[in-house]
Design brief:
Oligomer: heterodimer
Number of helices of chain A: 0
Helix content of chain A: under 10%
Radius of gyration of chain A: 13 Å
Number of strands of chain B: 12
Order of helices and strands of chain B: EEEEEEEEEEEE
Distance between the termini of chain A: 34 Å
Number of strands of chain A: 11
Largest sheet of chain A: 7 strands, mixed
């Protein structure tokens, strides 16, 4: 199994508070991704990174920011959490942008009250 | 416009029945990659198969088989002789310049 961990695995927070989720990999893969999974939508890309300090937006990036200061860590921050951001968040990694499969972390279940 | 369509939301079968999951995709690129992932009730996402747009050869892996047809933009997945452990949500995905997932098909296999 690909070495990907996410922390925390579960979090309950209140509307308006900042939240940071962490993704850590031990595979030295260049590409890292954050997705959210909601019923009926499959997985939707929030942001991705193609290298240290190199990031770009996905299809549902509003209200989220990311940072990658080291190859192995990719942080997702909800600046001011809203109830619509209640979701399961998955981190993924891949060695190539398009041609290779992505391997996913175990997910973080976030509830915003 | 949705790039990956999985028309079947839920499928329920009795053990040992075959089940086919449909996936239709849309892309303008000539080079792209297709994937299937499995998400069992425990929640993790498990990679099953990758296929590139230049390889239309069908593939069989144990009880799993995949039928890729560029002419109909389809990449269907069949589970033969289903088992209870096959119960999961199955996602089809397309990567042309980014990975787009279908909404998933929930497969329930009853003993």
């Amino acid at each position: 199994d690909a070495g990907i961990t996410q922390s925390p695995r579960h979090k309950v927070t209140e509307t308006g508070t900042p939240v940071t989720l962490r993704c850590h990999q031990t595979e030295n893969h260049r590409y890292m991704y954050w997705y959210r999974q909601d019923p009926g939508h499959g997985l939707r890309l929030i942001h991705y990174s193609y290298g240290v300090k190199d990031t770009d937006k996905g299809e549902v990036s509003d209200g989220y920011s990311v940072s990658r200061s080291k190859t192995e860590d990719f942080l997702l921050t909800l600046e001011s959490a809203t109830s619509s951001q209640t979701s399961v968040y998955f981190c993924a990694i891949s060695g190539e942008r398009t041609s290779r499969e992505q391997f996913f972390g175990p997910g973080t279940r976030l509830t915003v009250l | 416009a949705q790039k990956v369509t999985q028309a079947q939301t839920e499928i329920s079968v009795v053990e040992k029945e075959d089940v086919t999951l449909d996936c239709v995709y849309e892309t303008r690129d000539t080079t792209y990659y297709l994937f299937w992932y499995k998400q069992p009730p425990s929640g993790e996402l498990v990679f099953l198969i990758r296929r590139n747009s230049f390889d239309e050869q069908n593939e069989i892996s144990g009880r799993y088989s995949w039928n890729f047809q560029k002419s109909t933009s389809s990449f269907n997945f069949t589970i033969t002789a289903s088992q209870v452990v096959d119960s999961a949500v199955y996602f089809c995905a397309l990567n042309d310049y980014k990975l787009s997932f279908g909404a998933g098909t929930t497969v329930t296999v009853r003993a």
